[in-house]
């Protein structure tokens, strides 16, 4: 298995530049790594004391952020380095003033791992959720750099728990400690003989509860919602989601304001979405010198605002679940006590499963199901408020993962 893994990485390394000609994401993946090591050398000083966090993309970075903030506050002498596997995470955070070093993670070859770790020379490393890269973990272990997995999530169908998964299980043993989200993950690892594992919970709960203490006001939304009876947010929605909710949106009575934050904000996709809305609609990029109170629908064709936008919601639909790209973050609206609707594909998301069981979240399979629960939430205030209350209590009850992690690792600083 080890040989096959190394061979596969080498093949991928050769193929990616060719595949980049046909796929813009893969092209960004390749181009972003062209000067990776030279860029990293320019960002690191020999006397830097560095804590390294690795996240696949933006969602995993959000899980790392509470731990990053806690370490920065408690141990300010350290610099924070964050690496990303995905261009979407790197591009959003590459100029973030709260992070000292932002870089791509090179492909997981032995030579890349040796070179990267020698340059960065972290004192401690944290990998997030699913990020298990055998060569990097092996080199970190050889360098005697303690490495932790935070917000780990495991399922029995993963390679680690199959007969042919010995190589990947061995990689897990390189972690100093594995902090996992739930009992299922904990038990799967314990059954494989892991003793250095504990249930900390999901650090995203800490991230979203911290958001409640921040200023979430957006002046343009204050104006847009000034005279509304109710505000409904469609967050991170894909075309598959739009096909489920747009007819209900178009026929909803006046006095309700709609805010749509599509996952993809390419101009042609925004215009196509706009053309399917029969109500008076405007994009965020068009709001200058406009009387926003005159519009019914506001499309957010920019990034970075959705978390605050959820604070204005009376009902939230969170996208991704109608397709196969993955459900987006339901904890952001839940933290504000907002009742939630999602699509049908959510089995890989334990927080969605839990909230659905508690009746704080409703899953729909098609347009008809969406219209039923959507109408009920609009028309039945008691039902809507009770559903939202369940969400708020759920998030508050799950917070505290960061504190658990810090209590274990702080002696390493």
How would the global form be characterised? globular
CATH topology grouping of the largest domain: Rossmann fold
Indicate how many domains the architecture comprises. 2
Oligomer: single chain
* Number of helices, counting only DSSP H or I runs of 4 residues or more: 19
Q: How much helix is in the residues?
A: 40-55%
Structural class: alpha/beta
As a percent range, the share of strand residues is 15-25%
Q: Label the CATH architecture of the largest domain.
A: 3-Layer(aba) Sandwich
Radius of gyration: 22 Å
Distance N to C terminus: 36 Å
Whole-number mean pLDDT: 94
Largest pleated sheet: 7 strands, parallel
Low-confidence parts, pLDDT < 50 over ≥5 residues? none
Report strand order across the widest sheet: 3-2-1-4-5-6-7
CATH class of the largest domain: Alpha Beta
Q: Count the strands? A: 14
The CATH superfamily of the largest domain is 3-Deoxy-D-manno-octulosonic-acid transferase, N-terminal domain
Question: Could you explain how this protein is built, in words?
Answer:
With 413 residues, the protein is an alpha/beta fold. The protein has two domains: 9-211 and 400-412, Rossmann fold, CATH 3.40.50.11720; 219-398, Rossmann fold (3-Layer(aba) Sandwich), CATH 3.40.50. The chain has helices spanning 2-19, 24-31, 36-43, 58-74, 87-93, 110-120, 134-142, 166-172, 183-191, 204-211, 219-224, 239-251, 267-275, 306-310, 331-335, 350-358, 367-379, 381-398, 401-409; strands at residues 50-55, 79-84, 101-104, 124-128, 146-152, 177-180, 197-199, 230-237, 256-262, 281-283, 297-299, 315-318, 340-342, 361-363. α9 links the parallel β6 and β7. α4 (58-74) packs across α10 (204-211) and α6 (110-120) packs across α7. The radius of gyration is 22 Å and the shape is globular. The chain starts with a helix and ends with a helix.
């Amino acid at each position: 298995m080890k040989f096959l893994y190394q061979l596969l990485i080498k093949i991928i390394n050769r193929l990616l530049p060719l595949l980049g000609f046909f796929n813009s994401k893969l092209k960004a993946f390749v181009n972003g790594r062209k000067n990776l090591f030279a860029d990293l050398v320019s960002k690191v000083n020999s006397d830097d004391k560095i804590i390294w966090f690795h996240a696949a993309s933006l969602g995993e970075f959000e899980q790392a952020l509470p731990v990053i903030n806690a370490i920065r506050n408690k141990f300010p002498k350290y610099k924070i380095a964050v690496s990303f596997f995905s261009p979407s995470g790197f591009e959003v955070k590459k100029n973030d003033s709260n992070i000292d070093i932002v870089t791509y993670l090179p492909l997981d070859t032995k030579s890349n791992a040796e070179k990267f770790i020698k340059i960065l020379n972290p004192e401690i490393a944290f990998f997030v959720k699913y990020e298990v890269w055998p060569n990097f973990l092996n080199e970190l272990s050889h360098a005697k750099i303690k490495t932790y997995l935070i917000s780990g999530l495991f399922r029995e169908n993963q390679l680690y728990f199959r007969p042919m998964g010995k190589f990947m299980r061995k990689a897990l043993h390189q972690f100093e400690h594995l902090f996992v989200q739930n009992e299922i993950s904990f038990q799967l690892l314990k059954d494989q003989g892991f003793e250095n594992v504990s249930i900390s919970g999901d650090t995203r709960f800490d991230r979203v509860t911290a958001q409640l203490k921040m200023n979430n006001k957006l002046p343009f939304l204050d104006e847009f919602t000034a005279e509304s009876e109710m505000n409904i947010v469609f967050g991170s929605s894909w075309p598959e989601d739009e096909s489920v909710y747009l007819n209900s949106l178009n026929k909803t009575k006046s006095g309700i304001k709609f805010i749509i934050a599509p996952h993809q904000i390419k101009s042609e996709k925004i215009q196509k979405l706009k053309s399917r809305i029969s109500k008076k609609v405007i994009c965020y990029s068009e709001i200058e010198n406009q009387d926003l109170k005159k519009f019914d629908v506001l499309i957010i064709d920019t990034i970075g605002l959705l978390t605050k936008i959820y604070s204005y919601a009376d009902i939230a639909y969170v996208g991704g679940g109608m397709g196969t790209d993955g459900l987006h973050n339901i904890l952001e609206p839940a933290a504000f006590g907002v009742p939630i609707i999602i699509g049908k594909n959510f089995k890989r998301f334990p927080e969605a499963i839990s909230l659905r069981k508690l009746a704080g979240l409703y899953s729909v399979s098609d347009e008809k199901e969406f219209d039923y629960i959507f109408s009920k939430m609009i028309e039945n205030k008691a039902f809507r408020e009770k559903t939202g209350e369940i969400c708020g209590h759920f998030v508050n009850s799950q917070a505290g993962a960061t504190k658990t992690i810090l209590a274990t690792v702080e002696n390493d600083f």
